[in-house]
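User: I'm putting together notes for a lab meeting next week and I want to include a structural view of one of the chains we've been expressing. I don't have a solved structure, so I'd like a prediction I can at least talk through. The sequence is below, exactly as it appears in our construct file.
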Amino acid sequence: MQSLAQGNVLNTSPAPEDGVSNLVLLTGATGYVGGRLLPLLVEDGWRVRCLARRPEHLRPRVPAGVEVVQGDLLDAASLSAAMRGVQAAFYLVHSMGATGDFETQDRLAADNFAAAARAAGVQRIIYLGGLGEDQPELSAHLRSRHEVGQRLRAHGVPVIEFRASIIIGSGSLSFEMIRALVERLPVMLTPRWVNVAAQPIAIGDVLAYLRA
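Assistant: Thanks for the context. Below is the predicted structure for the 212-residue chain, given as structure tokens.
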């Protein structure tokens, strides 16, 4: 699925169903989107387990009752315990900015995550990817985002993939970068690629889709 740039089209969230595990696994809880999604999931009545490479850094920042477990997406053996009893798992991570070949790391992380989800009987993976058409000139970043979605789906667990372009909201990297440029540079010569049309989406709308 692709994101819509306008709306508050989703303003309700489904409550956990009776007789069904209401435990969800959240990756990326230290990130911009995941950190804002976490309290909303708790508000909706879900039990939330966060996966973190350094749990000691995340635990002081999570709401009461949220479980934080240690795990690394690049270490398949560390994921089985984190997936146990989980109904749905949010995949909100990527390897951009990591040392080494980020595309290779993205592939390994997605395969490990999806395989562990299947082994644990997880019913659904929710993935936030990047908006863009599949074409030869696609950037390495978007190409990797699309491939992650493909690899998550390849393991047999149902996947909902949201593809979002620039996410607009105070504190987001895209927003702060644009604001800094506007505040400091009254006139700017820009490269040709800035003429490429984008379909931005507000952080509130992204969170509404993920909650639903």
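A couple of points you could mention at the meeting. The chain is about 35% helix and 15% strand. The first strand starts at residue 23 and ends at 26.

User: Perfect, that's what I needed.
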